[in-house]
Amino acid sequence: MSHASHVSPIHEANLPLIDLAGLLGDDPQARSTVAQAIGRACRDTGFFYIHNHGIDVSLQAAVFEQARQLFDLPGEAKQALDKATSAANRGYEALRGQRLEPGAPADLKEGFYLGCEISPDDPRVQAGRFNHGPNQWPTTLPAFRPAMEHYHTALTGLAERLMAGLALSLELPEDYFAAFCHEPMATLRLLHYPPQPANAEPGEKGCGAHTDFGGLTLLLQDDNPGLQVWNHRAETWIDAPPLPGTYVVNLGDMIARWTNDRYRSTLHRVVNLSGRERYSVPFFYGGNPDHQVSCIPTCLEPGEAPRYPSVTVEEHYREMYRRTYA
C-alpha cells in the first residue's frame, strides 16, 4: 500500500492523518507501513491525527455526556471530590486550579482526573507508589463510573497498539515495549474550558503552553477548536482543529528522552475563542512505574552518547512533577 494511502495533510494544522487500520490488523507488512508513517510524524512534529482506531463512537459520546453532567454539578458537589484530598492525584480540579505555563495566568479550565481503580489495601498504594490508589466517583451520577472505566480500558488497549507501532517505527521488535506496557500508569482527564472572556488577562489561556510528561497522549476533542501546536520550523502556533472520527496523538517528554530526542515532545496550548463551552478528554499513557527508561540503541549514531541518564518511569514522573508544582 502506498505512503499516500496512510497519510494525508490537514490544511489548518499541517499535521498528518494516519489510518490506523493496518496497525490493528494481522498483516505484518501493513503494520510496518503504518509504523513508518507514525515514525515520520514523530520525527517531524510529535503530533498526528489517527482514524480507524477501533474506539466506538457511542462510547466516546457517553464519556462526553458524563463529563458535561459532572461539570454541571453544583460547586460544593465538585469540591467534595477535590483531588487535593487524594494521595493518588484523582478527582476534581477547580477552574484556574493549574498553571501549566510559567509566568502566565492560571489556566482557564476545570478538570477531573481518573486512573485504574486500585484498592487502598493494594501493596503499591500502601507503599506510596506514585499515582496509585482509588478514584473518587460522583455518587449522584450512576452512569459515570461504568462509562469511564470502559473507556479507560479501551484507550489503554489502543495505547498499547500504538506503542507496538512506535517499536516498529524505531526498527525494534514489535513487543519491545511490552514490559513498559505491563500494569501501566494511565490517567484519563476530563476537561471543561469556558469561553475565553472578552476581558481576559494578558496571556490568559484555557491551557498554557507546555509539553506532556509521559509516553503517549490520546486526545478526544468535541467539535470546538482551541488546540494549538508549536511549529518549530515556522516558529509559530498552528491550529489542530477537531476532525470527526479522530484522535490527536502526541508524544511526551519520556518518549523524547527514550529516543535521544529523535522523536519530538512538542509544546502545545489551548485558547478557546469559539465563544462556546469546550470539552476535551486527554488520555495520558505513562507505562509501568518500575520500567527503566534508557536510550534506545537504534536512536544512537556510532560514537554518539545518550543525552539523558537512565531513570525509571516513576523517577521521571516524580522529577517532572517536582519541576512543575514546586
TrEMBL record:
Keyword Cell inner membrane: no
Protein name listed in UniProt: 2-oxoglutarate-dependent ethylene/succinate-forming enzyme
Record GO terms (molecular function): 2-oxoglutarate oxygenase/decarboxylase (ethylene-forming) activity; metal ion binding
Family of the protein in this entry: Belongs to the iron/ascorbate-dependent oxidoreductase family.
Reported cofactor(s): Fe(2+)
Catalytic reactions of this protein: 2-oxoglutarate + O2 + 2 H(+) = ethene + 3 CO2 + H2O; L-arginine + 2-oxoglutarate + O2 = guanidine + L-glutamate 5-semialdehyde + succinate + CO2
Functional pathway: Alkene biosynthesis; ethylene biosynthesis via 2-oxoglutarate
